[in-house]
Design brief:
heterodimer; A: mainly alpha; ABC transporter involved in vitamin B12 uptake, BtuC; two-stranded antiparallel ribbon; 11 helices; 73% helix; globular; B: mainly alpha; two-stranded antiparallel sheet; 16 helices; 3% strand
Chain lengths: 289, 340
């Protein structure tokens, strides 16, 4: 019993990380119907930026976020203005293939710069710190912080969407791009801001990923898939849905891994496929695909 | 009198050129060395894979980044049939097709619930599931893979040279069959519907085409072809592992690159694209990851500034078609190719 409680608890906490993978993906889909195939590789890119910051400036990983988040946000803004805005339109193929090409470029660029060696960010004592909930149930400090940050990020995104002028611009362009333009919104700028925000979340996710486990240039696509599964489980366009989706994915993987180490990823994918079969619109859908 | 004509002067030249090329390729074992034969056979499989992907994405608008699911499935079916059921490898290749199509039926039912780009990632999840399942099958080597036993290989042909000729002709023959099947499909009334979907899905739907049903059929047919080619690829390689069989780079990224460069939504595109891809690979492969990086950049540039690819450019500029696929209404009795 204690064993399974532990397993489920670890799954819930890792679900926070998946929710952060998913939130950035969900955000740009909501605003501009763009699915960014390079999303996972951008998470890994953020991890490498954090690696350079921690090694170059000597900050510890969590503090490095002060630099990594703005850097990635600027990358996002530039990427959208310079490249991705050109791909948007009625045709599905250009954004898909351009972000696919981008994914290959980022992966191989990182491989060229940093080799295929596994890296990890060292966060020091906090990595092994833990607290006891009850007899036999322990929670690591880092997973707990990670989950709390995920909840905070999603709450912040939700507030931004519904309480600020920028959020209103996001929702307006999401509802009808041409009417938003007629009302004086520069949609190119709005889209670029959405991508900047998405990559700011990616930056946070990348740093937590890099502290939690080893990373190398090839692990991006799997992160994209986790994020995507969490989005679909939660329901398109719903921010809190991504958290629920991430948690469901995390718990399924944790249970799978407990049964047989080879089943960890498989269990997550199967949970996704089952949801797709019985509730294709996800648990809390907001926008239709 | 009204007739529909497919051929144009350029397509007659194209068909003649293709016929000459096919004859010389069929005779390649007499003029080429082992290295050339291997390279050509690999080239054929890419032409077939890219043509199938082109049918799926270029015509039916189903952009999949998960066709490696069926390449790998075909490969594993070949190994399973040959090693566990004792089937001769060549019939095993053909059995892989219908099984692949059969697997595609429930897969399509599930992932067709996703739209557009999410469909693309959904296909990728399916490929990942297949890869993880394959690594659980310990009879086929589990996660580390397995080689085709020498006994099975030797049973194919008495000498190594004959076996290599056999796989070469098999690759050429299967690729020709795949291309011919796609041409036949595109010239049929379903092909007209597919071309309509390619050009404008909404207009096609409003003209009474059952778009969803047609897409479903194309997805299953493509799975059939891709599984056969997958089995062939791993008969050439003689070794399989989950990571090579379900590789997104080898069976999807390269294939997309080929189709986009050559010209998506045109039958000639994948053929031109494969030739460009192999020329690039033979000259630049020493650059390693830089070469892949350049490939990604070229694909982005083409997609943004020449979205119809090389053949699309040629076709628009000169009105050429290498295969008789166009439909032209001929009103008067035919006197000249210029009549229309």
């Amino acid at each position: 019993m204690t064993l399974w409680l532990n397993v489920i608890l670890q799954g819930v906490l890792i679900g926070g990380l998946y929710a952060m993978f998913a939130a950035g993906l969900s955000l740009i889909f909501g605003v501009m119907r763009l699915v960014n195939i390079a999303h996972g590789d951008l998470i890994v890119l953020a991890a490498y930026v954090a690696l350079m910051v921690t090694q170059g400036v000597g900050l510890d990983p969590l503090t490095s976020l002060v630099l990594v988040v703005p850097v990635m946000a600027i990358v996002g803004y530039a990427l959208q203005r310079g490249l991705l805005n050109r791909t948007l339109g009625d045709d599905l193929l250009p954004p898909l293939l351009v972000t696919f090409g981008l994914s290959i470029i980022i992966q191989n660029g990182l491989l060229e710069l940093f080799t295929a060696d596994s890296r990890k960010l060292q966060a020091g004592a906090i990595e092994v710190a833990s607290l006891q909930l009850s007899k036999g149930i322990w929670i690591g400090a880092l997973p707990l912080i990670q989950f709390a940050v995920a909840v905070a990020v999603i709450a912040a995104l939700q507030a931004l969407f519904y309480k600020t002028a920028l959020g209103r611009a996001f929702r307006a362009t999401s509802d009808d791009q041409s009417v938003a333009q007629l009302m004086g919104l520069d949609t190119r700028h709005v889209f670029a801001m959405a991508m900047a925000l998405s990559l700011a979340v990616v930056a946070i996710a990348g740093v937590f990923l890099a502290v939690r486990a080893n990373f190398d240039p090839s692990i991006g696509p799997a992160r994209l898939i986790f994020g995507f599964e969490a989005v679909i489980i939660g329901g398109l366009g719903s921010m809190w849905g991504t958290l629920v989706g991430g948690v469901i994915l995390g718990v399924s993987q944790a249970i799978g891994a407990q049964l047989d180490p080879g089943w960890q990823l498989l269990a997550g994918h199967i949970a996704f496929l089952v949801i797709l079969a019985v509730r294709p619109q996800g648990l809390f859908p907001k926008v239709s695909g | 009198m009204i007739r529909v004509e497919h051929a144009t002067r350029s397509s007659r030249v194209g068909v003649a050129a293709i016929a000459v090329a096919l004859v010389s390729l069929a005779l390649a074992p007499y003029w080429g060395d082992r290295q050339t034969l291997r390279l050509l056979a690999e080239l054929f499989t890419y032409v077939a894979l890219a043509s199938l992907w082109n049918l799926l994405a270029g015509y039916a608008g189903l952009v999949s980044v998960g066709q490696q699911a069926f390449v790998g499935l075909g490969g594993y079916l070949l190994f399973a049939l040959a090693m566990l059921a004792g089937v001769h490898p060549i019939p095993a290749i053909f059995i892989a097709g219908p099984i692949g199509a059969l697997v595609a039926v429930p897969v399509a039912a599930l992932i067709f619930r996703l739209r557009g780009a999410y469909f693309a990632i959904g296909t990728w999840v399916v490929a990942e599931v297949f890869r993880l399942l394959a690594s659980q099958v310990s009879a086929l080597g589990g996660g580390s893979g397995i080689s085709l036993p020498a006994a099975v290989v030797i049973a194919m042909a008495p000498s190594r040279q004959l076996r290599e000729f056999e796989t070469y002709w098999l690759a050429l023959g299967l690729t020709v069959i795949v291309l011919a099947a796609i041409v036949a499909l595109l010239r049929s009334r379903h092909g007209l519907a597919l071309t309509a979907i390619r050009d404008n899905e909404l207009a096609a739907e409003s003209n009474g085409i059952d778009v969803t049903r047609l897409k479903y059929i194309v997805y299953v047919l493509t799975a059939f072809g891709t599984s056969v080619i997958g089995a062939l690829i791993f008969l050439q390689k003689l070794r399989i592992s989950p990571d090579t069989a379900f590789s997104v780079n080898d069976w999807t990224a390269f294939v997309i690159f080929i189709t986009v460069i050559g010209g998506i939504g045109r039958i000639e595109g994948p053929i031109i694209g494969t030739i460009i891809f192999f020329v690039m690979r033979q000259t630049l492969a020493d650059l390693g990851s830089l070469y892949l990086l350049m490939m990604g950049a070229v694909a982005i540039v083409v997609m943004l500034w020449a979205p119809k690819g090389l053949w699309g450019f040629v076709a628009d500029r000169f009105g050429w078609q290498a295969l008789p696929l166009q439909r032209r209404l001929v009103l008067a009795p035919k006197d000249d190719a210029r009549a229309a």
